[in-house]
Prior knowledge:
Elements: H1 3-16, H2 25-30, H3 39-49, H4 52-73, H5 77-99, H6 101-104, H7 108-112, H8 118-148, H9 152-176, H10 180-199, H11 201-204, H12 212-232, H13 236-243
Helix pairs in contact: 3-8, 4-5, 4-8, 5-8, 5-9, 5-10, 9-10, 9-12
Amino acid sequence: MSKYSMSQLKRELKGVYPAPAPEKKEEFLKGLPFPGTSPVEILAVQIGYIRKSVWLLSLLLVIATSWAGEYLLQGNSQEKLWFLSGVMPLLAVLAVTETFRSGTYGMAELEMAARYNLPGILLIRMGALGGGNLLMIIPGLLFLVRQENSSLLRGAVYLLVPWTCTCVLALQIEKYVRGRESMWYCCSCGCFLCGFMLLCREIYFDSEKFYLWPIVLSAAVIFLIRQIYQIRHETEVWKQNLYSV
Length: 245
């Protein structure tokens, strides 16, 4: 019997005699003896996975920008806030590219073999990096508000708008571009928004147009939540990009 007819016979046998579906599969998997892991332990593991250079570079960017605003500009709180807001896109790019580092270097399959699925791990890592960014800028924001008696809400909006917009754009890039190209596109996007913040100061900090920025922030947050929902529930485009590395 030829190899072709043999393979055809196997396919026909599979069609005639299909393998029975496994019974009580979920109960069996849940009953396997393995040590439990608390959410705090999972978070600690993912924080340890993040490279120390990313934390250090993010902290240096915030410190250098705050120092430049304080000692070089010698101006009011708006000028200092201008410098600090200019670095927010770079912080967002560092957070997003580090979150998707496994896909950038073709290691997503290895993380898929872990107990927890890759989208869940990505969201934990993204939350850790985003929380770290916020913890870094909060002291600078509080210092500016206390020093100049300016509005905390206004300062938070000015800082969060470039950060959330960059996150949205970088996640869109990661959604459709795979490999190291995504990192370069994200860096280009962050540099462009950073340049916009530094060059278009009069437009961004115009008091009469401040009402636009809470609207932009709200829209960016809604879109960011939608992207996170898609990653968590593995919509088709995200599945293809996360797993087909």
